[in-house]
Design brief:
Keywords: Cell membrane, Coiled coil, Glycoprotein, Membrane, Nucleus, Signal, Transmembrane, Transmembrane helix. The chain has 547 residues and is an alpha+beta fold. It is built from 14 helices and ten strands. Strands 1, 2, 3, 4, 5, 6, 7, 8, 9 and 10 form a ten-stranded mixed sheet that branches.
Length: 547
């Protein structure tokens, strides 16, 4: 109520004060400008309304922009979440794929030799075997007895004759060499098909390896591709041989790796002994300006030494000795006055540590080392262990086991096929490697003589699988199941498996030739076996049986 009275009083006072009578005469013109003021007020009101509309439009645009930004942020966030989910699934898929691939490789490397299945399941071995009828047991047995045994009867006498002559030749070689400067030659050892009793193709050739060592005070320090240092893929299976003084530290003194000042002297090595003349290392058959043994220099030295040795003892024999092949420096041939001849290979090798693994300068009659990286790279041969493994397994097999027969038949058929269509990349060493894997995979009773046909089919199936996958692993390298009785070096068992077919992966022409030769051999197998079985005279067969 007091507030209402106050408002009424305020209104009365305002009316009195604003009464026209209280203003002077000069203000009498205000009513005349009322319309102008009203017009200006309307214009001002219109401008304010337009400004309000503009501000409202700007606010609406800002709100729309803000909403668009928020929406874009939401889309980006969702896309990020989707990308994260996609990356997660991609990574998970890759991990699963890699695990599957690793498992597949482990399965192939660990169980690829498990043939499995019964003998009746071997009727069809694969695409290459469709329409191929293998000879039955009777035909195979007859073929082996008449053709294979008939050509291998003289191997024992030939081995004995060659070994005796080689021992005499090496003894003469030692006598013509300078014991203080030349390499020291040890006794020879027989390896390969002639000493594993499966050689079938003529001419018979004995393979002998001759270990040698440097003169005192030097020694060989060998390094392989699996010894820890990185080797390129094309150098797997190779190693290098460094010629060092026996009293030299294996790791090498720091004075060889660091430039000492002129007023500083190594306490372990004098300035004279720290550097060796290049001529001294070349006398030790090293590659020029290096300490690494040169295979070419070794073979030249060996040829000269053999020639001197033969000149010393030639008067004792009634035959001539000559080098038979230019591309195989150790290939020798004995020529009798009757016109007959005997060929054998005498190849120098270097022993790896205290094992029976050897560094070999070259492989006679083989393309296993056709593309040697350099003359300082030596291929490793496990021939001594291969011979021992076959001998060890043979003791556990049934009497007259068929393992050697299988290898002999395949080697014979492959040789006949190569004589018809030309040589291929497939060698007898590949065939022997297949047999070694199967000997380890199959139980002893599976090698009974009556199972010759089944085991022959096993070898063909295994070889076809390896050709298809371009993978035939070396038997010893990377094989953790090597019998402990062999005393095989553990470093090679722990190494990565060595694929013998790796050179053919990039050389497709050789690979194609190898596969075609194998398929052609399958197609001609029955015809060759039947032909060589039928055309053997009965009298010759009876003579073989009497032997």
């Amino acid at each position: 109520m007091p507030v209402g009275l106050f408002r009424v009083c305020l209104l009365v006072i305002t009316a009195i004060v604003n009464h026209p009578l209280f203003f002077p005469k000069e203000n009498g013109t205000v009513p005349e400008n009322t319309e102008e003021i009203i017009q200006k007020m309307k214009e001002r009101e219109e401008s304010l309304r337009l400004e309000q509309l503009r501000l409202e439009q700007e606010i609406a645009d800002q709100e729309a922009t803000q909403k668009a930004l928020e929406k874009a942020a939401v889309v980006v966030e969702e896309s990020k979440e989707e990308k994260v989910r996609w990356d997660m699934w991609t990574a998970l898929s890759m991990v699963i794929f890699l695990l599957i691939e690793l498992w597949r490789q482990d399965f192939q490397e660990g169980n690829w030799q498990d043939i499995g299945g019964e003998e009746d399941d071997m009727a069809v071995l694969g695409k290459a075997f469709k329409g191929v009828a293998l000879p039955d047991k009777a035909v195979l047995a007859s073929f082996y007895e008449k053709r294979i045994l008939g050509t291998t009867g003289d191997m024992a006498r030939m081995r004995e004759m060659v070994e005796g002559f080689a021992d005499d030749l090496l003894e003469a070689l030692r006598s013509v060499c300078n014991r203080d400067a030349d390499m020291e030659v040890e006794d020879c050892m027989g390896v390969g098909s002639m000493y594993e009793n499966w050689r079938v193709r003529k001419p018979f050739v004995c393979d002998l390896i001759v270990p040698f060592a440097p003169p005192e005070p030097y020694c060989f320090r060998c390094q392989t591709w699996c010894s820890g240092d990185s080797f390129p893929p094309d150098e797997q299976g190779y190693g290098t041989i460094k010629v060092c003084r026996a009293d030299e530290d294996e790791t090498g003194c720091i004075c060889d790796k660091t430039k000492l000042g002129e007023d500083m002297l190594c306490l372990l090595h004098s300035q004279v002994s720290s550097t060796r003349p290049s001529s001294e290392m070349e006398d030790l058959l090293c590659f020029k300006n290096t300490q690494y043994l040169d295979a070419d220099q070794v073979m030249k030295w060996f040829q000269i030494a053999v020639t001197k040795a033969w000149n010393r003892i030639s008067h004792k024999y009634e035959f001539d000795l000559s080098f038979s092949l230019l591309d195989s420096p150790g290939a020798l041939k004995i020529k009798f006055k009757s016109g007959k001849s005997i060929a054998f290979n005498l190849t120098p090798v270097v022993q790896y540590e205290n094992s029976d693994v050897y560094f070999i300068s070259h492989f006679p009659r083989s393309n296993l080392a056709a593309d040697v990286p350099s003359s300082t790279h030596w291929f490793l041969t496990f021939a001594v262990y291969e011979r021992r493994f076959i001998q060890l397994v043979s003791k556990t097999l049934p009497a007259n086991a068929c393992h050697v027969s299988c290898l002999q038949i395949l080697s014979f058929l492959h040789g006949k096929q190569c004589s018809l269509t030309g040589p291929s990349g497939l060698t007898n060493y590949h065939l022997k490697t297949v047999l070694l894997h199967l000997l380890q995979a199959r139980p002893s009773q599976d090698w009974a003589p009556e199972k010759l046909e089944a085991r022959l089919q096993d070898m063909l199936k295994f070889l076809e699988k390896c050709l298809h996958e371009k993978k035939l692993y070396h038997f010893f390298i990377g094989n953790g199941k090597v019998p402990a009785e062999l005393g095989f070096p553990i470093i090679f068992q722990r190494a990565e498996p060595l694929n013998l077919f790796r050179p053919f992966v990039l050389r497709r022409d050789i690979y194609r030739k190898m596969v075609d030769t194998f398929h052609e051999m399958l197609r001609n197998m029955s015809a060759l076996i039947n032909e060589y079985t039928v055309h053997i005279p009965l009298a010759h067969t009876n003579g073989i049986r009497k032997e």
